[in-house]
Specification:
The complex is a heterotrimer of chains A (469), B (88) and C (490). Chain A is an alpha+beta fold and 469 residues long. Chain A folds into three domains: 280 residues, no CATH class; 112 residues, no CATH class; 57 residues, Arc Repressor Mutant, subunit A (Orthogonal Bundle), CATH 1.10.10. Chain A is 41% helix and 18% strand. The longest helix of chain A is centred in the middle third of the chain and has 20 residues. The mean pLDDT of chain A is 90. Chain B has a domain of 40 residues. Helix content of chain B is 28%, strand content 9%. Chain B is built from two helices and three strands; from the N terminus they run ααβββ. The longest helix of chain B has 15 residues. The model of chain B has no long low-confidence stretch (mean pLDDT 90). In chain C, strands 1-3-2-4-6-5-10-11-9-7-8 form an eleven-stranded mixed sheet, sandwiched between helices. In chain C, α5 runs parallel beside α6, α10 packs across α12 and α10 packs across α13. The longest helix of chain C is centred in the last third of the chain and has 21 residues. Chain C has a domain of 227 residues: Alpha-Beta Complex (Amidase signature (AS) enzymes), CATH 3.90.1300. Classes of the chains: A alpha+beta (469), B alpha+beta (88), C alpha/beta (490). Chains in contact: A-B, A-C, B-C. The interface between B and C is large, with 52 and 63 residues.
Chain lengths: 469, 88, 490
């Protein structure tokens, strides 16, 4: 049986500062080596100063993944030499003296399958290497320490996945969960990374490292299962090892020489006393915790009668959910949910579009209330929504500029219908024979009114005039 | 007695080259042999005493840019990066 | 500049408190004192090698402080007094080598917290003092730049690792010094050079800017000629620091107030395991005399047994090697260090070559530090050492419920000659048997110069309760005043 486990690294991108110093947590806006200080470059004499918010955010992740949280957390040193690691050790968490990582023994359920979380730990990200030179033999690593010390939370699962599809579903849910918690922005490059381990029936566990994205991880796992199964079929033993994902060739390759370095000599980091987490801490954080996605979904369906499908989309995307929460009331909730999940989705489907969008929740409230009060058609509303996103103008401004008033005046619609009936003699004939084709004429009327005519009124008048039911 | 080979292996992991081989290994062996005294200490059941702090004692999450020009004072600083020896 | 005294009556041997008084009274200028100190260094340091570098701007700095004094501007409490700093503590813009070839070219880009605090009080950092490489040793013989000598007899070691600091204070090459104490590195040389050395409660003084050797047990500590001066310096350098998570709030304690409270009614425990076996007879006699002097002042004594002391040195070496193996891993010569081009090397082989600049003792400790916490050996060595540390702490805490403080000689033996112990690592281990307990248990401990026996100094150690450094200083002051010691012969 195939067994897959994951190690997910989540940068706490929503923090202001790094894990142990006051440099910026979001290093992406800096030119190389300008977001550094003696602490994150590990200069002699510098000491780590643990970020309080990092502990809080990590606790929230732990609670959201239904983990047990210890009364005291401890930090350890993981010792190894690498050019991106300024101190040649990483400050992380470890459970050498009982559970002292921020979380352990959690679980979440995906599609009826329970995935156990073994451990959640707080640690620092290393710096980044880029390479100078072309051939593998002559590549000189160039180090950028801007990322060194960025707060990370590592989530380690048990090998509970049976196939790559479960991995994908899990990661999608996890991304939504982390975003909903307000701890990490998954659209930032490198904010979420995952390594995996795979074993097939009759083989040993293989670790897969160096995977840049979740998407690649799925591919790497696929590749590994196939590779390992073919070894088993040919009776070639599978030796436990670490393999690197080669993004260019889309294969995994053995990471040689790693074996000798497996002894990390974990021991307690004396510069950081153990942090006591009393019940007040957990209580305070529980109050601060945003409502879970599942609870939002349930509320949307039960309280507002929103369909399951719409509630799913709305609750799992923090951007939409936040807009919804701010703009709706009991009366308009369902309509707002529909507008967001049908019309708005097309306008703000990328990070860039969301960042530049000028749409506010007041816009949405106003727009939906106007639809419900029959002041504007859904068609016009869509046009207005696009304008709001790009210009931030108010509904009134947009209506007057673009002539979007709603037409529900019977005589105006009636006169437009008369024009259409004159122009579309053939269609009229057809409708009289096949009443179900009436929508063609409705469409013509809508077009002539520039989308402003009330569609149901139009239909009723048309039917009356043509004598159909 | 800890073997010479084991000491050499650990030295390699620590990125330490031993020149004055015999003297170093002899002294290290003596030191490690001395540590065997701990087998008589009878402390297996002892609980570890650790230092503790409350979460309130931790650093506030605030961005404060470092005011010095750190990178320019580091060695091997070329262009915008620190050069490391090749990894292969 | 015209002084009020001719230079030959200017006494470099005055205490810090006396210096301040003389400056305030207008009997002395900072410039005179600094110039005279530099002359003294030029005269004696070729014999002693207490310093690794000297502050070339010291006289200029003294002049500007004098100017402030003359203009009646605000002047810091130290009023230009010369203080030296062990060369493993960062002073901005100066070389901080840890007496290692590995950091031959390292210029600290920032001040240690203790240095900022001293500078804020108008101290003149007169120079950086010698030590055993990365503070690993008890004689300064492991300095990559050559050993310091004992001012009482230059054929003898000054103790270590803060041997340069103790020698400089003893030989009047500065008024006071800051050392660091990981297993006795302040107290041991203080004892060997007949000066006062304090290892404060862990967390009382910020370690920010102290280059870590074994960070979970070490502390910066003052080395001075009088107990009052130690209290005076502690007032300046102690307290919480936003740059060190392990510092403790001392409520702005004033250590100098009531320093003359005495020991009337105090109960002192004599540590059995540190006062009998392996103690030189002169040291033993001095200890007994100190006890009887204390008794004369109204203190009472009882013997206390701490059986974990027998394992303390082994535990100490295992913990320090483990932490040092990790703390010194950053010396890969990629970002700072010394001149050695990496061109053409592979990463790991470059590191191994670059790290050959570690001296022999550091090299051995690196290997020990790779061995004792490794997956296969941690249970036998590192974990057991941690448990010895815990049990020793529990025993000392228990003892300090019965008595106010503990007493033992600082070092069980007299100062020894160069080369005498360097070749026997285990013999050298036992030099620290009386000092490592304070480090392993986080307790404050002080060495007080008590006797000169056959021309060689003997110090007495007091060990107190956590955060009761003040009580310890009061007792030390009382003991200091029971003896009159000869002047340093150099």
């Amino acid at each position: 049986m195939t067994k897959i486990g994951l190690e997910i690294h989540c940068q706490l991108t929503n923090l202001q500062s790094k894990l142990f110093c006051s440099c910026k947590a979001n290093y992406r806006e800096f030119s190389p080596n300008t977001n550094i200080c003696p602490i994150c470059v590990g200069l002699p004499g510098s000491l780590p100063m643990l970020n309080q918010k990092a502990v809080e955010k990590a606790t929230m992740i732990s609670m959201a993944l239904n983990c047990k949280t210890p009364e005291k957390i401890a930090f350890f040193r993981k010792n190894y030499f690498y050019p991106d690691l300024p101190k040649n050790f990483q400050i992380t968490q470890f459970d050498a003296y009982g559970p002292t990582s921020i979380g352990h023994d959690g679980k979440i359920t995906i599609e009826g399958k329970e995935i156990r979380i073994r451990r959640i730990q707080i640690e620092e990200d290393p710096g980044r290497l880029i390479y100078e030179g072309t051939s593998e033999k002559t590549q000189i690593p160039l180090v950028d320490y801007n990322r060194a010390g960025t707060p990370l939370v590592e989530i380690v699962t048990e090998p509970d996945f049976d196939n790559p599809k479960q991995v994908r579903v899990f990661l999608n849910i996890l991304v939504d969960l982390l975003e909903n918690l307000g701890v990490s922005d998954p659209t930032l490059e490198g904010a979420l990374r995952a390594d995996g381990n795979v074993s097939v029936e009759g083989g040993n566990k293989i670790e897969i490292k160096n995977v840049a994205s979740f998407h690649d991880l799925e591919k790497a796992i696929h590749f590994e299962i196939t590779r390992q199964q073919s070894l088993v079929e040919r009776n070639i033993p599978i030796i436990s090892e670490t393999r690197q994902w080669d993004d260019r060739r889309k294969i995994t390759i053995s990471a040689r020489k790693k074996e000798e370095e497996q002894d990390y000599r974990y021991f307690l980091e004396g510069d950081i006393p153990w942090v006591k987490l009393n019940s007040d801490h957990f209580k305070k954080l529980r109050e601060k915790m945003p409502e879970s996605i599942a609870s939002k979904r349930e509320r949307y369906v039960e309280k507002y009668g929103i369909t399951n499908q719409v509630a799913d989309v709305l609750s799992s995307d923090k951007y939409y959910a936040d807009l919804f929460e701010q703009s709706h009331d009991e009366k308009n909730a369902k309509e707002i949910a529909n507008i967001i999940t049908t019309d708005l989705m097309g306008f703000v489907d990328t990070r860039e579009k969301r960042e530049t969008s000028k749409l506010t929740h007041q816009h949405l409230t106003e727009l939906v209330n106007s639809i419900m009060d029959n002041k504007i058609t859904r068609n016009s509303a869509k046009t207005a929504l696009q304008e709001m996103v790009s210009t931030g103008k108010s509904l009134i401004e947009i209506i007057s500029e673009q002539d979007l008033d709603y037409v529900s005046d019977e005589s105006t619609i009636s006169s437009i219908i008369n024009e259409v009936l004159n122009e579309e003699a053939n269609a009229v004939q057809e409708v009289k024979e096949k009443p179900e084709t009436v929508n063609f004429l409705v469409g013509k009327v809508m077009k002539k009114s520039k989308g402003k005519a009330d569609p149901s009124m139009t239909l009723n008048i048309l039917k009356k005039k043509l004598g159909i039911t | 007695m800890v073997s010479k080979e084991e000491i050499e292996h650990v030295a390699k992991l620590m990125r330490i080259e031993i020149d004055d081989h015999v003297v170093h290994i002899d002294r290290i062996q003596k030191m490690i042999a001395y540590f065997d005294i701990l087998d008589k200490a009878n402390v297996e059941s002892e609980e570890l005493i650790v230092r503790e702090q409350t979460i309130d004692a931790l650093r506030e999450d605030k961005y404060i840019p470092y005011d010095g020009k750190l990178i320019e004072n580091l060695k091997n600083y070329k262009g915008s990066y620190v050069r490391a020896p090749k990894l292969v | 500049m015209s002084g009020h005294q001719s230079w030959f009556d200017l006494n470099l041997g005055i205490s810090a408190l006396k210096y301040i008084e003389e400056i305030k009274n207008g009997n002395l200028t900072a410039e005179e004192f600094i110039s005279k100190t530099i002359e003294r260094i030029q005269k004696v340091d070729s014999k002693l090698h207490a310093y690794l570098s000297i502050n070339e701007q010291a006289v200029e700095q003294a002049k500007s402080i004098d100017k402030k004094i003359k203009a009646k501007e605000n002047v810091g409490a130290c009023m230009g007094m010369p203080i030296s700093i062990k060369d493993n503590i960062c002073v901005k813009g100066t070389k901080t080598t840890c007496a290692s070839k590995m950091l031959e070219d390292f210029i600290a880009p920032y001040d240690a917290t203790v240095v900022s605090k001293l500078k804020a009080e108008d101290t003149i950092i007169i120079g950086k003092t010698n030590l055993d490489e990365f503070a690993m040793g008890f004689t300064t013989e492991f300095s990559a730049y050559g050993p310091s000598k004992n001012p009482w007899n230059t054929e003898y070691v000054p103790g270590g690792s803060s041997g340069g600091s103790a020698a400089a204070v003893s030989a009047l090459e500065c008024i006071a010094s800051l050392g660091s104490d990981t297993g006795g590195s302040v107290r041991n040389p203080a004892s060997f050079c007949s000066v006062v050395g304090l290892k404060p409660t862990y967390g009382l003084i910020s370690r920010y800017g102290l280059i870590s050797y074994s960070n979970s047990i070490e502390q910066i500590g003052p080395i001075t000629r009088t107990v009052e001066d130690t209290a005076f310096l502690l007032n300046i350098i102690a307290g919480m620091d936003p740059h060190d998570n392990t510092t403790i709030d001392n409520q702005n304690e004033n250590y100098l107030n009531d320093i003359d409270s005495g020991v009337e009614g105090k109960k002192i425990g004599i540590i059995k395991e540190m006062t009998h076996e392996g103690v030189d007879k002169q040291v033993s006699a001095a200890t007994n005399k100190a006890i009887s002097n204390f008794e004369g002042l109204g203190a009472t004594f009882e013997e206390i047994s701490l059986d974990m002391v027998a394992y303390s040195v082994a535990a100490y070496y295992i913990i320090t090697a483990t932490e040092a193996g990790s703390n010194l891993a950053r010396y890969d010569n990629l970002r700072y260090g010394y001149d050695f081009d990496s061109e053409g090397y592979e990463f790991n082989s470059y590191l191994s070559k670059a790290r050959k600049n570690f001296g022999p003792e550091v090299t051995r400790r690196m290997i020990l530090g790779g061995f004792v916490p490794s997956a296969g050996h941690a249970g036998k060595y590192f974990l057991k050492a941690m448990k010895v540390k815990s049990k020793l702490t529990a025993q000392v805490n228990e003892a300090l419920k019965k008595v106010d403080m503990l007493i033992a000689p600082t070092v069980p033996i007299l100062p020894f000659r160069f080369g005498e112990k360097i070749d026997d690592p285990v013999a050298l281990f036992l030099v620290d048997i009386n000092t490592v307990t304070a480090n392993l248990t986080e307790k404050p401990a002080i060495s007080i110069p008590f006797e000169i026996s056959g021309g060689l100094p003997i110090g007495i150690q007091l060990l107190g309760k956590s955060m009761q450094d003040k009580m310890l200083l009061q007792a030390a002051y009382a003991l200091q005043n029971t003896v009159k010691l000869p002047e340093v012969p150099i």
